[in-house]
């Protein structure tokens, strides 16, 4: 990529309110939630979650929603967390922390649609990594969650150009990263990489952010990049897309990422892809309901 464009991206990232930082409770709470199930200290989770009023309020709000069918709303964080379960609490924490870092008021992309896809991809990455017996399911979850953070930078720092790219993607029914390249000269992969570096994310996560559309070009951690690429495609054909129809055909098994992943995970050859896809449907509905509870309905075009 052109050196001038690279420097422009880095400068724009620096200008996003001096690059938003992730709230302080993010890492300690995530560490608690990712402990083995029999080692999770519920009282400590409640204590840490309560330090952030926005997260505490969101847990209570979601636990009170019709989604969980409670006879009466929970009146404490403990009741809310027990009602939600640790997996949903983790999702709320991640969403709230990212939401606090980036106010969605000036996003080009609809934040509801963005979080549906990002959280959906995180969920699918975790399940798929479990299916193929990958060693770190939580890293796969985080990679799925963060793979498209460049869209946030493009919304906030390149709004006019990005709006044209989004409109072109919808009109031409092409993947958004292709429209970005046409109208911006770069994609969310480059801007996401710059943000990941500003946040001091791990090298593996930065590789995912930078190469999830071209896993064969990744420099390290190619298996994780390939996994996120496949799960990203799977989400886009199962209703966790960016709110418009893509006419391109998807064949996961024929995708180069499938071959990359098969070299490191032999269990992939035993995966019943049709069954796995079918099993996702209930989880997809849950993501829709949860994100709508937090962010409301998608914007009308």
What general outline do the C-alpha atoms trace? globular
Radius of gyration: 19 Å
* Helix share, percent: 55-70%
Q: What portion of the residues fall into strands of 2 or more residues?
A: under 5%
The CATH superfamily of the largest domain turns out to be Hypothetical protein af1432
Q: Could you give a short account of the major beta sheet? A: none
Looking at CATH, which topology of the largest domain would you report?
Answer: Hypothetical protein af1432
Name of the top-level CATH class of the largest domain: Mainly Alpha
Give the mean pLDDT.
Answer: 84
Distance between the termini: 33 Å
| Number of continuous helical runs | 16
Q: Return the structural class.
A: mainly alpha
In the CATH hierarchy, the architecture of the largest domain is: Orthogonal Bundle
